[in-house]
Amino acid sequence: SRSSAASDVYKRQANIQLQGPLELRARGDLTQQRFELTGGASGLGYRDMQVDLGGEHRAGELRIDRLLLEAAGGQRASVSGTVQTGPITAWDVLLSARDFTLPDYPGVPQGIVSGELAVAGELSGEGWRVDIRDADLDGTVGGAPATVRGRAQLDSVNLVGDADLQAVVNGALLELGNPGGEGAELTLVVDDLSRWADGAYGSLEAAARLEDKGRRLRLAGRSPVLGWNDWSGRGLEFSAAHALTAGRLPDLDLRLAEFSGSGFDARDISLVGGGDVARHRVQFSSTGDLDGTLAISGGMTDDGWRGALANTELGTPLGAWILPEAVELE
Fold it and tell me: Residue ranges of the alpha helices (H) in the chain?
């Protein structure tokens, strides 16, 4: 298949190989070591890339003074910072680039980036934290201008802290903000889905908002038209609300005015659901070639999930499908 072929190509490209002449210098003792490496490398779509690495290792800490990557055409990227290991893994690194081509992956738009990005964070048994500082990146992706600006604090407790981050990539806009700490909001606008996937078309707008100090999530979105090859949908609107507490399930409401393709045509489509783990319900309905309603209710018990499919009559291109009585499911 196309996806497996692309994966095989990427695996071959991702096989990074060092190339001579190589020069490695190291000094130190069991508690502290200083190292330097210069030479060439290839992989990830790069050829004849020059590498210059220097740093120091001591108990529980790796300090990278410089990791310079230089490729043809004046491309240059560098990484510096520290990485700490132990009960808490922590990092604080600065990435910078000048006209540097992004790694080549089949099916993903190619790009070139310049600028700087500082990222710090930590990971432990108690949780995680990521702090994006001073993002200032410019370039192109898929032939369209690309920028990343701002900052964002993310963690496992509040999910999103102080944030003011905007990215424009391949014609799509992504914004993350948390004005005044009242509630983080993530907005996505994709004007042309064909820029992201072969065979796709249409547009999509979506927004997610964290409320009540990260204990409630709301999601909403719309698309006038979207499709994939011969299949298309019109008039998509969806919303969801989820209390991020144990046992709760999202309340979902999805509406689609029309869905068609390959001689099939359904209209007035709706999917609604909600409840908690112990008791929940999902209902689907539409008209056209698929005409009727399907409703499933259920919940978790000590013996596992148990539910029921309600009695219904569903019109299909092959004729009516009739369920005169509810059927138990488990």
Answer: 2-13
